[in-house]
Design goal:
Number of helices: 5
Distance between the termini: 28 Å
Strand content: 5-15%
Order of helices and strands: HEEHEEHHH
CATH class: Alpha Beta
Number of domains: 1
CATH topology: Aspartate Aminotransferase, domain 1
Strand order of the largest sheet: 1-2-4-3
Structural class: alpha+beta
Radius of gyration: 14 Å
Largest sheet: 4 strands, antiparallel
Number of strands: 4
Shape: globular
Length: about 120
């Protein structure tokens, strides 16, 4: 969550104390629905989610929810969480630059290769 805030992503309600983070995308000019689809293209799964005082439909939303259970199952720690937060922020900021999105996707694939799902 701290890295997300360093990447200019607003965490609601001012941080997180559990395995979920809610990110407000209002100032980034992208809906939660579009961000969900975009971030999936770089191999990261998030969910669109409403934010407090939501002005959009619950089917569109202004936020995304990011959970950590899948990455902790892979044995990822704080450093990898920071990398994932950076990848999400870069994807949103650079969404109109396919080459950057391809680089982010490759970075995520490498991270997953280094931390395979345990059998």
């Amino acid at each position: 969550a701290e890295e997300s805030e360093r990447q200019d992503m607003r965490i609601l309600p001012g941080g997180t104390d559990n395995h979920l983070s809610l990110i407000d995308l209002t100032k980034h000019g992208i809906t939660g629905k579009d961000a969900e689809k975009l971030i999936e293209k770089v191999r990261i799964i998030v969910n669109k989610n409403t934010v407090p005082f939501e002005t959009r439909s619950p089917f569109i939303t202004s936020g995304i929810r990011v959970g950590t259970p899948a990455v902790t199952t892979r044995g990822m720690k704080d450093a990898e969480m920071r990398t994932i937060a950076e990848c999400i922020a870069t994807t949103i900021r650079e969404r109109d630059h396919p080459k950057v999105l391809e680089e982010v996707s490759e970075r995520v694939a490498e991270l997953c290769k280094q931390h395979p799902v345990p059998m």
